Amino acid sequence: MQILRMAWRNLWRNGRRSAVTVAAMTFxxxxxxxxxxxxxxMLVDMVDQAVDLEVGxxxxxxxxxxxxxxxxxxxxxxxxxxxxxxxxxxxxxPRLLGGGLGAVGQESAGVQLVGVDVERDATVTRIHQxxxxxxxxxxxxxxxxxxxxxxxxxxxxxxxxxxxxxxxGADGSIANDLFTVRGVLAGVGDGVDxxxxxxTEDAFRALMVLPAGAHRLTVRVPEGxxxxxxRARIEALGPGLEVRTWRQLLPTLSTMIESTRxxxxxxxxxxxLAIAILVLNAMLMAVFERIREFGVMKxxxxxxxxxxxxxxxxxxxxALLATGIGVLLALPAMAWLSRVGIDVGALGGMQMMGMSMMxxxxxxxxxxxxQGPVLIxxxxxxxxxxxxxxxxxxxxxxxxxxxx
Amino acid sequence: xxxxxFSSVTKVYTQGQVQVHALRGLDLQIEAGExxxxxxxxxxxxxxxxxxxxxxxHPSSGTVALEGRDLxxxxxxxxxxxxxxxxxxxxxxxxxxxxxxxxENAESVLALQGVPEGQxxxxxxxxxxxxxLGGLEHRRPDQLxxxxxxxxxxxxxxxxxxxIVLADxxxxxxxxxxxxxxxxLMQRLNQERGVTFLFSTHDxxxxxxxxxxxxxxxxxVAEDLRR
Lengths: 404, 227
What we know:
By secondary structure, chain A is an alpha+beta fold. Chain A contains 14 helices and 14 strands. Chain A has a six-stranded mixed barrel with strand order 2-3-8-5-7-6, surrounded by four helices.
């Protein structure tokens, strides 16, 4: 109690210096909290873009499909598998995949055909909300298709345009039919944007003469579920299934997310290093100014540990003040960044790892995005104060009392 | 057994390339209850002897023993506890802790000893009354006169009931009237409470009050006068 009281009063012996130190710590903490939250928001957004829009949290395909994606290599009884997956508490939707040629007027391009179970797909992805023009697929309009953004541009296709699709059916016949463009997607990701045509499941089956089976089941698990555990449970539903999590499907993205989180620590270290030098300087000055006083304290019976504690508590109080003020000042900024965010639409949206980002960059603030910067600040302050505190603790009293 | 014993103590300081022999084989014994003044010209070794007695410094050779314990054989931690529990210091420049009030300064050593708050309060307030410091408990050192600060320093030194109080030029920074009052006070504490005092001083008034005067010359006892 005596140490705490002395430390608090010592802080205000040179109020200006303490205020500057606290202000610098506060500013660094404020910046780091917002930076961490914004980067976390970007990472979560990237995962959401990848997972929610297209990839899904888990994908199930027939064994060997990934190495040899043939029209004929299908999950034979998708209905039974869907029932099994839903029995585990997960949502799932089948997709049918094929390739072909799309043409609008004189323009043509190679396209990826995706047959969608419209109703189920809406429970596992958000691609139906990602339209730039027109409307999403409707089972009542089997001739209506939706195009990727850049495919539509390269074909010169607008909503209402007629699209000819040419391919080879599962029975070896020539598959060709005329469709109407119902909608054009906003940016989703390179793969979808450049060459994907979405059509209803029934339209796909009719075009490609594929009455049964599905090439891929996209699965969504409740928030917080362990994806590896979910994968194992789905694999156990039947033989011949290949189940992959999004981290396995997008290893580069997964690695980048981990390394970006590591980068936050590095940036925090660099920002706080400057603060640590400031704290070190302030505490060294405080120790040298009071060196005679420490000598007297040790002469009358204060032990080295008590003197060390006094200096450490002085720094801890500054860090505590900075933490309180920094977090308090960060609250309104966190609220604004998480609700409103920064408009990056003016830059044409951001693209990263081949995926289009949201038009608005919002922060994601959780206990850990605040806790991390606070803990690193405390760690750096503790390191910075070590030398001055040890110096004060170890100096012999007679030497300290002779100091001028 | 003497309370404090110097046996063939030498102390050599190195200042640059020059060696200064502050003590050259000091032999001295201080008994419990004494009121002793160490006198002598500048450089005779008075302050060095006091620093060694207070376990603030180590002799170059010889031994310094307090209550029979050789200070040279104690660890830093043990020396720290010894200073806290058995030695009281009164400095020329008062050396109160500036962020603590008069009361907090006086009770600081008791708090370090772990004396319960109620007992600390009782003991310090009684001392403040005895030393004429009543009503000044909440003042910081910079709000006290030199004499008041030195009385607080005396209160701090004796509150923990040490075996000996070491006072280095305690009257050097105060006027004559205050010096007389401080000396009367310390003499009273010596006579009524049996507190042992060892002074280093140039001040003739301190010498007048002392019951034993030890004169040091060139780091040795030149004269030992008991009254």
